[in-house]
């Protein structure tokens, strides 16, 4: 019996060490948008003007390139629109008292060589101006169709849909984040909402 406890304790220690290693190494936040194709085409601008034209951080409408954990796993992710507050599409399903729905429409393009197969809402969060973070919730909103909960995209394919968050009415949403592989990939994309 005593030997079993030592083996169990050793197994827990190994699993804990692996979890810390997997979650704690190389995590980065990507917030520099891809260069706009129109800006590339206009070669008449000098270098300083082009630098000023590129936003320092991504905002609504910008695309970020993110890598997943698997070799060849890469997405171009765009925050297309924000609905704040968002109205429930179901009269029987409303936000809890003192809260509101916020919807973010994402466009996901598989630019990698591997099939993308995930639930995008698992890797999405919004944060308010105080730094409080809120995970996604299952809700349908009137702004449009939800993102699929089991999105499968072959290389070159695109997915589009709304991810909904439930936040306090007084919170001022500031950023939205998206991470591949249900939130476990090393790169997290971040867009300013204001």
Automatic annotation (TrEMBL):
Top-rank lineage group of the source organism: Bacteria
InterPro entries xrefs: DUF4352 (IPR029051), Immunoprotect_excell_Ig-like (IPR029050)
Biased composition (Basic and acidic residues): 31-54
First and last residue of the signal peptide: 1-24
Keywords, alphabetical: Signal
Region (Disordered): 31-58
Ranges of residues in domain DUF4352: 74-186
Record's protein name: DUF4352 domain-containing protein
């Amino acid at each position: 019996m005593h030997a079993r406890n030592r083996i169990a304790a050793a197994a827990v220690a190994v699993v804990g060490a692996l979890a810390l290693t997997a979650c704690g190494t190389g995590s980065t936040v990507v917030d520099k948008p891809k260069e706009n194709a129109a800006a590339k085409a206009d070669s008449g601008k000098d270098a300083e003007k082009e630098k000023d034209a590129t936003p320092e951080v991504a905002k609504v409408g910008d695309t970020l390139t993110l890598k997943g954990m698997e070799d060849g796993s890469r997405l171009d992710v765009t925050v297309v629109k924000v609905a704040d507050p968002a109205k429930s599409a179901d009269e029987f399903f409303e936000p809890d008292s003192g809260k509101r729905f916020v919807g973010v429409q994402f466009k996901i393009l598989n630019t990698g060589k591997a099939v993308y197969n995930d639930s995008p809402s698992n890797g999405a969060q919004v944060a308010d101006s105080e730094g409080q973070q809120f995970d996604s919730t299952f809700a349908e909103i009137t702004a449009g169709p939800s993102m699929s909960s089991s999105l499968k995209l072959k290389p070159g394919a695109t997915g589009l849909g709304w991810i909904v968050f439930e936040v306090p009415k007084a919170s001022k949403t500031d950023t939205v984040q998206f991470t591949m592989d249900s939130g476990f990939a090393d790169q997290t994309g971040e867009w300013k909402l204001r």
